[in-house]
Amino acid sequence: MAGWAFHKGLAVALPRDNVDTDQLIPARFMSVPRSAGYGDYLLHDLRRDEDGALHPDFPLNRHPAASILVAGRNFGSGSSREAAVYALVDAGFRAVIAPSFGDIFAGNAVNNGLLPARVSPEDAAALTQALHGATAEATVDLETGEIMLGDLHVDFSLDDSWRTKLINGWDDIDLTRQHSDAIARFREGRRQVAPWAWPAAEA
Amino acid sequence: MSAPATLLDKLWADHEVLRRDDGTSLLWVDRHLVHEGSHHAFAKLSARGLPVAQPDLTFAVVDHYAPTRNRDRLDDPQIARMIHTLQDNARAHGLRLFDLHDPNQGIVHVIGPEQGLTLPGLLINCGDSHTSTHGAFGALAFGIGATEVAHVLATQTIWQKKPAAMRIRVEGALCEGVTAKDIALNWIARLGADGARGHAVEYAGSAIRGLSMEGRMTLCNLSIEGGARFGMVAPDDTTFAYVKDRPFAPKGADRDAALEAWSMLVSDPEAEFDREVMIEAGEIAPTVTWGTSPEQALPVDATVPDPARLPSEKAETARAALDYMGLQPGRPIAGTPVDQVFIGSCTNGRIEDLRAAAAVLAGRRARVPGMVSPGSMLVKKQAEEEGLDRVFTAAGLDWVGAGCSMCVGMNGDLVASGQRCASSTNRNFRGRQGRGARTHLMSPAMVAAAAVTGEITDVRALLAGRAA
Ligand code: SF4
């Protein structure tokens, strides 16, 4: 996964609270292999009618080129399905800006190069208002933790380890394998002090 | 003497392999549970040509796509492909698989405890947010995404920042007809669906001590619906009795050593929590959701909120929820007609849940159709031995096989668009039970009451003169 430190793109607002993972990608699409692409399933049932036709007035349908999403509180709450992040990434999003995120979603996002930028509810409202239901060019700077949209300058918070990971595009498995000796030692120690932590032979 | 520690501190310390300068810990994983949805993670693993690091600590189960009827034929090619993929991955990596026809098959969060894979003091991961369920045993249990599942498969460890510690104390006695489900919906309604975000919740207090393991699991299961990735209860004699003699649980000398270690797994009296919440058990009523988030819940004898009278930041969300749910503001929630009922899921598909529902349904007929799906095939067997299945079928409900079923609809058990379902599950999200489906979350006894009257009903009226 390629890292990134700065992004310039079109921002679009979806000012709803609790956009949960079942809305981000309905369960029925989750058996699709990743290689097939998840972008078409993003917010599928909100964006499309029962026959699959796009609702012309839905913000994401009006502005398919957007890459920065300004959302409401508790974005990505619900399930651990990483497919919710795949759908956003495959639809071209690099950053979601919201007052709060589901914890598992936020971790999944970082693992896929998508920034979960936490801002105050007031700043989220200000960004939404500045967008007026349209799009505008915005920039996101991971180094400074700043979002700029027209005259608006908004600070976002992001865990330092996540910032580093996004910028470097690090993959945890490679990092962890550098610690394989420490892991092996820990495992042997646990075997000694807590042998009960290994499953008994199936009775 | 070391500084007073919370249960979270102790569990964390027991699993920490190392801590990076940025404060992220590498934790050892004692149990890793995988299911059909783990296909992305297995694909990542094979893309790198890596083996599963600890197949002896990794267990696989068919649950999300498990058909609840006609299991001998997998008619739907997508469902068949999901199940076959898991079977292939389990075989390729030498994992113990609880397959579709295994007599111990069931929902991952039901069979983990049932099989003794879930124990106090363990760190348990699964690519499923309701992994918090296993915290009921005093375990560090949390859901992870596919990238993290691949990481655990490859290394048997997980990177994690230690969450803040939060304690929810529930003191006093619960009223009749009030269950662990109601405790959970009550606190989520009070604190919000993100109220415990960033926290690990430890449940304490006399009402929690009084809960069975089933009740504790229901409570910990729903922690994620309040934003907490972890829910936990300190283990006690109730826990130790439940764990005893389970197939994979420690025996003999190992059990003695385990009991000694497990008895230390309590928050020290002076330990400080980052947040404390206190709830009077006696003030909790049977609770139901009216909206599309678990925080949109209220006592069954209350009225549906009027968005016009809510603070502005909640009004728009409430209006959208009422519109989706087809409800009128300001009307009593009780009396809302339902089209169908569902009893099951990892929240409320255990034997005690089925007993509570059967206690209400015994000798009565359901006015609406519905399904009862036990959380595991062992729960199914036990329920049949107790005659509960005959109570359900005599009432006119369908008695089917074990799996996630109508909780998420992946196996085809769906609620049709516009239909209203009284459900013992954990998510009332838009479209969760099917596109356009209207879900009201409530306890199994409350679902049974809704079945009997055909509308949302205060179960207490139907329990009068009956033992719950
Ligand atoms: S029963 Fe529902 S909540 Fe539980 S694991 Fe299955 S789909 Fe998830």
Distance between the terminal alpha carbons of chain A, to the nearest Å? 44 Å
The fraction of residues in strands of chain A falls at: 15-25%
The count of helical stretches of chain B stands at 17
Mean pLDDT of chain B: 97
CATH superfamily of the largest domain in chain B: Aconitase, domain 3
Assign the CATH class of the largest domain in chain B: Alpha Beta
**Major β-sheet strand ordering of chain B:** 5-4-3-6-7
CATH architecture of the largest domain in chain A: Alpha-Beta Barrel
Low-confidence stretches of chain A: none
Mean model confidence by pLDDT of chain A: 95
CATH H-level homologous superfamily name of the largest domain in chain A: Aconitase, domain 4
**Secondary structure tally: strands of chain B:** 19
Protein name (chain A): 3-isopropylmalate dehydratase
Family (chain A): Belongs to the LeuD family. LeuD type 1 subfamily.
GO cellular component, one term (chain A): 3-isopropylmalate dehydratase complex
Pathway (chain A): Amino-acid biosynthesis; L-leucine biosynthesis; L-leucine from 3-methyl-2-oxobutanoate: step 2/4
Description:
Chain B: InterPro entries: 3-IsopropMal_deHydase_lsu (IPR004430), Acnase/IPM_dHydase_lsu_aba_1/3 (IPR015931), Acoase/IPM_deHydtase_lsu_aba (IPR001030), Aconitase_4Fe-4S_BS (IPR018136), Aconitase_4Fe-4S_dom (IPR036008), IPM_dehydratase_rel_enz (IPR050067), IPMI_cat (IPR033941). The complex is a heterodimer of chains A (203) and B (468). Chain A has helices spanning 21-24, 44-47, 59-62, 83-90, 103-111, 121-131, 160-168, 172-177, 180-193; strands at residues 6-14, 68-71, 95-98, 115-118, 136-141, 146-149, 152-155. Chain A is of the alpha/beta class. Chain A folds into 2 domains: 6-170, Aconitase, domain 4, CATH 3.20.19.10; 171-203. In chain A, strands 4-3-2-1-5-6-7 form a 7-stranded mixed β-sheet. In chain A, β3 (95-98), α5 and β4 (115-118) form a beta-alpha-beta unit. With 468 residues, chain B is an alpha/beta fold. Chain B folds into 3 domains: 7-162, Aconitase, domain 3, CATH 3.30.499; 164-235 and 267-283, Aconitase, Domain 2, CATH 3.40.1060.10; 287-463, Aconitase, domain 3 (2-Layer Sandwich), CATH 3.30.499.10. Chain B has helices spanning 7-15, 39-47, 77-93, 108-114, 146-155, 180-191, 206-209, 213-221, 237-243, 252-262, 312-325, 345-348, 351-361, 377-385, 388-395, 444-453, 459-463; strands at residues 16-19, 24-28, 31-35, 58-61, 96-98, 123-126, 140-143, 157-161, 164-171, 199-204, 230-233, 275-280, 287-289, 297-299, 340-343, 370-372, 398-399, 420-423, 438-441. Chain B has a 5-stranded parallel β-sheet. In chain B, strands 17-16-15-18-19 form a 5-stranded parallel β-sheet. In chain B, a hairpin with a 7-residue loop joins β13 and β14 (297-299). The longest helix of chain B is centred in the N-terminal third of the chain and has 17 residues, at 77-93. Chain B is globular. Chain B starts with 6 loop residues before the first helix and ends in a 5-residue tail after the last helix. Chains A and B meet through α5, α7, α8 and α9 of A and β2, α2, α3, α5 and β8 of B. The complex binds iron/sulfur cluster. Iron/sulfur cluster (SF4) binds at residues 63-64, 107, 109, 128, 130, 345-346, 404, 407-408, 426 of chain B.
